[in-house]
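Onboarding guide, step 5: your first structure request.
Type a short instruction followed by the sequence, for example:

Predict the 3D structure of this protein.
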Amino acid sequence: MADNLFEAKYDITKKSKLKKFYELNKILIFSSIFILIIVFGSFNFYLGKKEKEKILLSENYIQAKIYLENGNKTEAVNILKSVIFANDPAYSTLCLFLILNENLITDYKELLALFDHLLANNKFEKEIENLLVYKKALLNSNFANESELLEGVKPLLNTDTLWRPHALLLLGDYFVSKKEYLKAKQFYAQILTINNLQKELYEQARLQLSFIAND
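The system replies with structure tokens like these:
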């Protein structure tokens, strides 16, 4: 009997404390619940919005390709540039590559500006970023001076990236075109020291070294 009475008093005391806590903190409790609802709703809205944007970019990319097939390059370029400036790592990159592959923009400075915008405003996986750096350097090799080209490929030369041998080959070819054969040999020779490289790259480096030796 005494035990039951004690338990009853304990329950009443516990409920009283809970009620008191609720009364003192109900504004905070409701505010916290309200904030959580807003955060959860905002997060869902953000995800939905990003998904819609992704779908729209995909549709724009496809539409640009349709314009190209129909010979309407102006409309295609306008759409592709708008997707590039939408700053989506996947579709912005695809659009820039399509512009390059189809030679849709011939203005060198405009192309460089597109590369710079893409690299500055997107977060890429490292090898995708390195590919963009290499393609920019490849474009730049037709116009840049030696110091500008070397500065452009520096991120590739100082890391163990898939695009390092391509950058070395690019620099070797650049100096061959300038008839600076000693500099060219240095870059071709580095290619031959890289392990597990594609046979084609080894062969290109060897052929160029042979060309230099016989020139």
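Each response can be followed by summary notes, for example: The CA atoms of residues 43 and 49 lie 10 Å apart.
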